[in-house]
Specification:
By secondary structure, the chain is an alpha/beta fold. It contains six helices and five strands.
Length: about 140
């Protein structure tokens, strides 16, 4: 019985995806270059990401979302999902352009971390994602 649970756990971890939502094509292009396409799902608006999250946390290892995009913004999605019991093991990262207070509020609402576009090295985001997905998986 334990072996079957272990096999199921490993299979789930192998199929988990990083979800990335941003309406800026240049950001998505950068993210596609950094993160393997087979492990990543890309969304161009908040509505699409919200619909995916409504399906539940199965198959998700991490969520990176922009704050300002069509439909619910990243802050709203973090507030809606990050503290739900079934999402408690899934880190949410707000990746946005704007004031630091937006990121601080997102962390209060359940975000694991925030990155302000243009104020960090992309390697820092990549390294954090690699660390979190290895820790999770």
């Amino acid at each position: 019985m334990k072996l079957e649970k272990i096999k199921k756990f490993i299979k789930n971890k192998m199929t988990e995806k990083i979800l990335i939502a941003d309406d800026d094509e240049s950001v998505l292009t950068s993210m596609e270059w950094i993160f393997p396409k087979e492990n990543t799902e890309f969304y161009r608006d908040g509505n699409s990401l919200d619909k995916r999250l409504e399906q539940g946390p199965e198959g998700i290892s991490l969520v990176i979302t922009d704050n300002n995009m069509q439909g619910p913004n990243g802050s709203m999605l973090i507030k809606k999902y990050a503290k739900q019991e079934n999402f408690r093991n899934i880190p949410f990262i707000l990746h946005y352009g704007g004031d630091e207070s937006i990121g601080e509020k997102a962390v209060e609402d359940g975000a694991f971390r925030y990155f302000i576009k243009g104020n960090y090295n992309i390697k820092d985001l990549r390294d954090l994602v690699n660390l979190l997905t290895k820790k999770i998986g």
